[in-house]
Structures are given as C-alpha cells and as structure tokens.
Write a structure and sequence with these properties.
Blueprint lengths: L1 E3 L6 E4 L9 H15 L17 H14 L4 H17 L4 H17 L4 H18 L4 H13 L3 H14 L4 H13 L3 H14 L4 H13 L3 H9 L6 H12 L8 H11 L5 H14 L9
Antiparallel strand pairs: 1-2
Helix pairs in contact: 2-3, 2-4, 3-4, 4-5, 4-6, 5-6, 6-7, 6-8, 7-8, 8-9, 9-10, 10-11, 10-12, 11-12, 12-13
C-alpha cells in the first residue's frame, strides 16, 4: 500500500500487508487504521468495514457488478445483472448482491429497454430477500426507495431513502435518489441539499454531478454551475450537454429553464445519439415538471 502526494508525485508512505483470505476484513481494518495514523486522521468511531460475505469470490463478483452498474449504459447494466447473479450463486446469503441485482433491473428501465412493470416485478422480491438476510441493510432500503419511485409513491420513497441514509450517512446514491424523490414532490431546495450531500461524497459520479448542476440551473445559480463544469475534465455526454445549455444563455429570461433545455436537447439530438438512446426517455418525461434527472 502506498500513499503518494498527487501534486509532486512524492511517496509519503509505503507498507506491506500479508494474510490469508480468512483474514480479508481484518486486513482491511488494519490498512485503514495504518493510513489514518500516517495522515494523523482521527477515527472517532470504531472501524466499520461492511462484512458483506466471507466468500472472496462472491465479493469480487459483487464489486464487478457495481462497477458496471455505475456505468449507466445498456451494456454495463447487462454485465451488472450477470455479475450480481453470479455473486448470489456464489453466496446465497449475501444481502448486498440481492439489492445490487434489484438496482440493476430498476435502472434498466431508465437506461435500457426494460419496461417499468418488469423492473418492479423482478426487483421487489430481491429487495425483500435482502432485508430478510440483513434487516439493517442501507443498500436494501435505498433499493426500496428506487422501486417506490418507479411506482410513483414519492413520500414512501423519500422515507425509505431517509432510512438508508440513517443506516449509512455516506451512501451517496441514497442522497441522490432522495433528492429525486423530494424533487418530484416539488421541494426544489430540499432536493438541492440532498444533491449537494451526494456530490460532497462522490464528486466524480456523472449522475450525481448532473443532478447537482441541473438543480443549480433550476435555482438560477448559473455561475456556480458553470464553475463546476469548467473545472471538470470528464467526457460525460451529460456534462457536455449541460455545458452547452449554460453557454446558450447566462440568464435566460425569454423562456423557462425547461424550454431552454428542450431547445438545446433537440439541437444536440444528432450529436448525442447514444446519450439520447440511453437517457432521453426519462428526461422528456420530466420536462413537464421542469426537471431532467438522472437515476
């Protein structure tokens, strides 16, 4: 394990840790404690590394599933479904794998061609099984929140996501999805606070960044939105699209924000064909409320 000063490239600290698979989590605790001590970071609470499974192969499959799930593409979600199912097969008692598979099905209704009814039907039993296996699973409550949003029950979705955040305050997706839920209830300022929390936890995630900046635009914070976008080197089509909107007008007064974004979207239709195929369906469905959010 190495700590490197990014600006200079200097190596600050190096150490080697050895152990067997049976000591995997103990080694994680040891590494975190060593790094924290080196950086003089206080550990105000006992280390809490998620004990998802004792099967290292199942854990690897689950992490691969999450990696592809975060891609938010049809191909990535198909891979995520396969990896989560393999993780379940490897360890049927791994609650996180069930919630991961549920999340993959639910997001396929946004980024792939799976219909919402099918997504809800497949995800529901998986979420319940995850909660049977681990009643205190923040991931499972977050999954329940997405499912309830798909059903249009936004107050219940907001409550489920609030429970996920209570169980794990660092769950960036739960913060983001809670923002989506309260946005659907018309609470723009509350939604912004949740997106801000998600962005603080995961500033490199394209969906988090998209929703955070989109809400800044809704609030008229154009300079703040532009500042974040211009500081990013991401090639995400979503962020390019938002930058184009901001370049259209500094202070749009002749049309609503939703109307401006629709104009830009139509102008960029050909250039962002892949983006349109994967995400435009959900965006157009949100235009009536003046919001275009990522799941």
């Amino acid at each position: 394990v190495q700590l490197v000063e990014v600006s200079s490239g200097d190596h600050l600290w190096t150490d080697t840790f050895e152990g067997t698979e049976s000591r995997f989590y103990a080694m994680q605790d040891q590494i975190v404690a060593s790094v924290a001590e080196t950086l003089a970071l206080p550990l105000d609470a006992p280390l809490q590394v998620a004990r998802a499974t004792t099967d290292i192969n199942a854990l690897d499959l689950y992490l691969l599933g999450r990696h592809h799930w975060h891609e938010r593409t049809p191909e990535g979600l198909e891979r995520a479904v396969a990896y989560f199912q393999q993780a379940i097969d490897a360890d049927p008692g791994m609650a996180q794998a069930y919630s991961g598979l549920a999340d993959a099905y639910l997001l396929q209704a946004n980024y792939d061609d799976r219909d919402s009814v099918s997504a809800i039907t497949l995800a529901g039993p998986l979420i319940e099984q995850a909660l049977v296996l681990d009643p205190g699973s923040a991931d499972a409550y977050a999954s329940r929140g997405i499912l309830l949003q798909k059903k249009g029950d936004y107050p219940a979705a907001e409550a489920a996501l609030g429970e996920a955040i209570r169980l794990n305050p660092n769950h960036s997706m739960a913060h983001m999805w809670r923002g989506n839920a309260v946005m659907a209830l018309g609470e723009l300022s509350q939604a912004f606070s949740h997106y801000e929390a998600a962005f603080a936890l995961d500033p490199q995630h394209p969906a988090v960044t998209h929703n955070y900046i989109n809400t800044m635009i809704e609030l008229g914070r154009y300079a703040q939105a532009r500042s974040i976008l211009t500081s990013r080197s991401s090639g995400s089509p979503d962020l390019c699209w938002l930058q184009s909107w901001l370049n259209c007008s500094n202070s749009p007064t002749s049309a609503t924000a939703a109307e401006h974004r629709l104009i830009i979207t139509l102008n960029l239709w050909a250039g962002f064909e892949t983006l349109v195929r994967s995400t435009m369906g959900i965006r157009l469905s949100w235009l009536g409320k003046g919001n275009m959010l990522e799941a």
